[in-house]
Amino acid sequence: MITDKSCKEFLEDLSSAAPVPGGGGVSAIVGAMGVALGSMVANLTYGKKKYADVQENIVILLNRAENLRKELLMLIEKDAEVFEPLSKAYGLPKETDEEKKYKEETLEKALKAACGVPLEIMQKAIEVMDIHDELVVIGTRIAVSDIGVGVLFCKSALMGASLNVFINTKLMKDRAFAEEMNQKTEDMLAVGSKKADRIYKEVEALIK
Asked: What is the pTM of this model?
C-alpha cells in the first residue's frame, strides 16, 4: 500500500522511474494534507471557551474532514490501480491488424477508467475548501494562516488532478465522452479555483 509508506519512502518512489506514484497520487495526497490542516485548525478551536458558541459546528467540520481525508488517501491507491492497466495498454503490440484493434480497444477502456479518479480528487478538493470556508469565519485566529495553506494545497490538488483528466481525454477516440469529461473538469476548475482564491484572500486580509 502506497499510503503505508513513510514520507521518505514515498518520495523515493515518486522520484524513481516507477510508473506509480505519479501526479495523480500526489494530487490526492496534497488534498489530504489540505484537509488535515483544516482538521488541525478545528481541533485547536475545539473546547476553547472563546469559541463556545461554535463548538457544535466544529464537531461537524471535524467529522467531515476526517471522512474526506480518508477518502483522499483511498484515492491515492485507486489512482495507482487504474494507471496499471493503462500503462500495460500502452505497451501492447500493434504489428497486425488484430493486435492494433485489440490495443485500441484496451487503451480506450483504460483511458476512460483513468479519468474517474482525478475527477473524484477534484470533487473532494472542492468539498475540503467548503470546510476551510467555514473555518475562516469560526476557527481560531491563532492558526488562520494554516487555513490559507490548506486551501492552497486543495487548489493544487484540483489543478493537478485536472491535468490527469486532460492528458487521458486527449488520446480518446470517443470524442463525445472526452468532451463530456473535459467540460466536467473545466466546470470544477472554474468553481474550485474561484472559491480557493476568495478564501485565500480572506485569510490574507486577516493576517496582514
From this structure: 0.93
As a three-state string, the secondary structure of the chain is CHHHCCHHHHHHHHHCCCCCCCHHHHHHHHHHHHHHHHHHHHHHHCCCHHHHHHHHHHHHHHHHHHHHHHHHHHHHHHHHHHHHHHHHHHCCCCCCHHHHHHHHHHHHHHHHHHHHHHHHHHHHHHHHHHHHHHHHHHCCHHHHHHHHHHHHHHHHHHHHHHHHHHHHHCCCCCHHHHHHHHHHHHHHHHHHHHHHHHHHHHHHHHHC
CB 110 within 8 A of CB 23: no
Phi, psi (5° rounding) for residue 96?
-105, 165
pLDDT in tens, 23-59: 999 999 999 999 999 999 999 999 999 999 999 999 9
Of 142, 119, 144, give the one whose Cα is nearest residue 132.
144
CB 88 within 8 A of CB 46: no
